[in-house]
Amino acid sequence: MNPPLSPAAGVARPGLPDVPWVKRWLRRWLSSGVRGALRLRSRPYTVARDRVALVIAPHQDDETLGCGGLLRQKRQVGAPLWIAYLTDGSASHRDHPTLSPAVLATLRQGEARQAMRLLGVEETALHFLDVADGTLAHLDPPAAADLAEKIAGLLRQVRPDEIFLPMRDDGSSEHDAAFVVVQRALDLAGLHPRLFEFPVWAAWNPLRLLRPSLASRAVWRVDDREQAELKRQAMGAYVSQTEPIAPWEKPVLSREFLSYFCTGIEYFIER
């Protein structure tokens, strides 16, 4: 997940801007209320061994943040599971003085492999489609058609019963674009699996969760509190995102932001 970066701010440049304590408190308060509503609205999701799942991650780390607990539980019961990373993740450190996009793309792919190993997902289940990060919402028609066909090919290969992907109105243009291209690929493949949407940016902006959670057909929850530490370790595998890379003094993803994904409960919206 690549946050919108603020204008260059010297070596302290953060991915997420500093927020006054009042706004942090308000966000926490709103998040607690929205999650309470989600808890009341939701039903437990049953992890079944006979359902094939495909997870769509616009960026390396979206899958761990949004559904790391689900991934662990699916692999624990031996459920077939595939993950498709749409972009190469190379744009999370724009204008970094020493870290080039090419090096970052290689680094983030390695981090994804390590995170998935921690959650029990085999490397053979990982598919990297390597669209240039930051371009997903602005692909020209031929490139968009090519990406849709690649996803459709994967769909035809694995024939998923379920697809898990970031919410269509998550607050990221790339996440919105990912939802559109997946729908196009489903049309091309002629498949109609169930779609489960998980919040990523919406976890940071809880008001984005409120309307879809109330208007959706169903909200599902996965309780993985007993193994929450394993998800934290998988999140920590994304060192490029969770730790500062010199000379920047702050990480792309703050500890406060990451804390929203450490509750041990994950929510999925089915519209």
Quick recap:
With 271 residues, this protein is of the alpha/beta class.
Tell me what the structure shows.
This protein has 271 residues and is of the alpha/beta class. It has a single domain (50-270), classed as Rossmann fold (3-Layer(aba) Sandwich). Helix content is 45%, strand content 15%. The protein has 10 helices and 8 strands. It has helices at residues 21-41, 62-77, 101-119, 141-158, 173-189, 201-204, 207-215, 228-236, 239-242, 255-259; strands at 43-44, 53-57, 81-87, 126-131, 162-166, 194-198, 218-223, 265-270. The strands form 2 sheets. A 5-stranded parallel sheet has the order 4-3-2-5-6, sandwiched between helices. Strands 1-7-8 form a 3-stranded mixed sheet, with helices on both faces. Helix 2 links the parallel strand 2 (53-57) and strand 3. Helix 3 runs antiparallel to helix 8 (228-236) and helix 4 packs across helix 5. It is globular, with a radius of gyration of 18 Å. The two termini are 23 Å apart. The model is unreliable at 4-13 (pLDDT under 50).
Sketch the major β-sheet: 5 strands, parallel
Based on the structure, what is the oligomeric state of the protein chains? single chain
Percent range of helical residues: 40-55%
- In round numbers, the mean pLDDT is 92
N- and C-termini, Cα separation:
23 Å
Give the strand order of the largest sheet, numbering strands 1, 2, ... along the chain. 4-3-2-5-6
Return the CATH topology.
Answer: Rossmann fold
CATH architecture: 3-Layer(aba) Sandwich
